[in-house]
Write a structure and sequence with these properties.
- By secondary structure, the protein is mainly beta.
- It has helices at about 100-110, 335-340, 380-385; strands at about 25-30, 35, 50-55, 55-65, 70-80, 90-95, 130-140, 150-165, 170-185, 195-210, 215-225, 235-245, 245-255, 270-275, 285-300, 300-315, 320-330, 340-355, 360-365, 390-400, 405-415, 425-435, 440-450, 455-465, 470-485, 490-505, 510-520, 525-535.
- The protein has three helices and 28 strands.
- The strands form two sheets. It has a 22-stranded antiparallel beta barrel. It has a six-stranded antiparallel barrel with strand order 1-2-5-4-3-6.
- It is globular.
- The two termini are about 40 Å apart.
Amino acid sequence: MKRYLIISLLLIQPFFAQESRTRFQVDYMSAEHVYLSGGTEQGLQVGDRLVIGRNRTLVARLEVIFVARYSASCKILSSPLKVRPGDTAILLARVKSDEGENQKKNVKRRTQKKAPAIPLGKRSPEPLARFSGSASVQLLQLQDNAEIGLDFFQTSTRLNFRMHHILGKELTLRARTRVRYNERVQDYLANAVQQQELRNRVYELYLDYHDDESLLNYKLGRIYTRRLSGLGNIDGAQVEMRLLSNTRLGVMAGFQPNLFNSNFQTDIQKYGAYLHFAPRDVSIRRFETTLAAVMEYSGQTISREFLYFQNTYSRGSRFSIFQSVEVDINRKWRQARTGKAVTLSNFYVAGRYRFSDAVSAGLTFDNRQNYYSIEFIDIDEFLFDAAPRTGIRGSLSLQLPGQLEVNTGGGFRTRNLSSSDATFSFSAGVSRRNLMRRRISLGVSATGFSEPFSDGLLGTIQVGKQFVQGHRVDLSYLRYAYTIRDVDLSRANNVFRINTSWIMFRSLVIAGLLDLANGDDLQGPRMLFEVGYIF
């Protein structure tokens, strides 16, 4: 049984390509804050709201709390999934108060320097390449005073590196890695979890040539194509040809990294081709569509073959909709397991409508299903089909006077729409910014679920203080309680949390978190310390 269950209840939203001034790359994260590679020069202001999406799923909602000329730090308003370096943050709403403009002017005055005069006849030499990214070291320690006594210590190092405009060309070298060393006081789960383990994951490592005016673009290395998210990561190559100004044809081939440790392997080969259409001249309306075919094989054995089709449409910031479909072509052993020649394994639609600057709502229908591949060829059929997948969710966001914000959401998931074994969930929260005009925020939220075997509720109260320099301190109280009906078991846990982050010398980030837990499942402190450098 999981000792601490966190339910993601916010609406999954669509995310769309925007102009460069509305898209920002995540360079670095601390425990509670996200740092972006964009600042006042790209139009960001304190109070701006952004969203991060990955694979057509909402990852996090952000608010800018400090902005410099070329970087910005954001607090995480909500995070159904974990933010990763390299994720793209999309501007959702700009602040309308004078605070953002004043912050922008102050930063410009502090950072703007007079350019040195260049003698006539001499030109400043172009650098061989430009560098950006972040590196960090994180220490995590959990002292478990409960009866089971599972003390835990973890050391993590992360690198998110980008060398771009190499030799003055649209050439980029990208690396994103993480190394973790875990140490526990004992093995458990029948030695499935080891007392000591080292995990080295390379998420991306590739050379990328991308120029919208070029006939050919390419990627080489461990890549992930955002044109075709269903393909996942591959160790290989992607080549894209411009057929027309608004149409591109792409092909890719390579090997699938190991799913459990991301090591290089040649066991599974992947191939794909896609046709992407996106008008370049867009003002208010924007439309994109992709049609693709993907094939996976283990030697001569089929792993998966499917067709992929997605569409996105947006009308300014008022209305947006996203739709994706995956159709599996079942042959040989896959047809024998499913009993069907064709399976609809993914049908997903998400839309959002902004009624006014103060009111917006969203609705999502998600019918993504499990599919058989070579990794799951021997899995029990009951276990494979047991997880509920079909779901409908809705959300409502209100911006009230006095910098007050209210967010609510709810929905259900089930094995199929005719099943009575549904899981219901909800979330509700209210927050107030700039309390007493002292950069103090106050928030109260509740998240809950109810399914055939158990119920749970997580409540949170948080008070935070934002400093002019970008530093922040938050104090929180969390209470999580759940009940398992079949055995008439009720459990509750209380957590007092102190979270802080400090920006030193504009590039050095120091963050810390202390949890003091006391309850039926959790007892003892959890401490986290992280030092990161943004370059």
